[in-house]
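Handout, page 2. Input:
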Amino acid sequence: MAYTFPQTPISNAGLYYVNGLQLSNDVTNPTTTIDIAVGQCRDSTNTNDIFVNAVYNVTTVPPTLVTNYVTASTTFVGAGGLDTGVVAINTMYAVYAIGSSANQPFLVNYAPINVTPPTELPFSAVPGAAILSLSFVQPVLPQGYDMYRRIGAVVTDGAGHIEEFRQTGNASQRTMRYGVGVGVVAAGHAVGYTAVSLNVNAPAVPPIATDVLLLVQITPTVAGNEVAFQPTGAGAGSIYAYLSGSVAGIDQQATLTCPCNAASSISYKVTEAGDAVTYAVSGYVDLL
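Output:
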């Protein structure tokens, strides 16, 4: 029996993954700096891996751990800071992991006298880092860097300070929650679906189609009246989230989840024109 073997090697596309790299407000400087946990991700072209490693003091033998995260600051331009310009107020910044395809981390063995076994640590001439950018398409990369992948977003307030947030999740889907609701909208009393931008008063949601978390309050004129939400452009009869008021004239509050479109827009309607509704964005699901 004759066997035929393929002469062309089988190659699988790389997995477009994100592992680790969680964002958080820096403990010491929470309004100007975010911390990015160590981790790895595939670059934006799904060609190479970006490694963001812990920071070591290499002047000691063996090197000693300084932090198990890297930082990104709004106070300067360059790797670990803004990609260009100065920090803006009431603005959403994309957060990118950046790296160099020509200077990937490599292991260096340190075998000083009386230290067994040797310490192996990843080092690179151009180490993985993070950068903040106004662009959600591509950051301006510092010299030596040629790879990037968005790993989140942060918002500044009217003073140019980074808003308090919590990012949870470990894969390419992360949930971002704000310490206080942003993008407060006085929704009015429309009885037919009316489109409203979630970023009308302050940036709250990145330019992606995703789920948003809404802090909703309704004061119904009649018990049982409700406010309904849908992503802008959905069918006229579609309801993706709603909140009803159980007692006339009494506020009813809840957190709802509703999809939005890529323009960060949702639509709402109330049962009767006398129903009063307000809502704020308390977070969103970020799709990296």
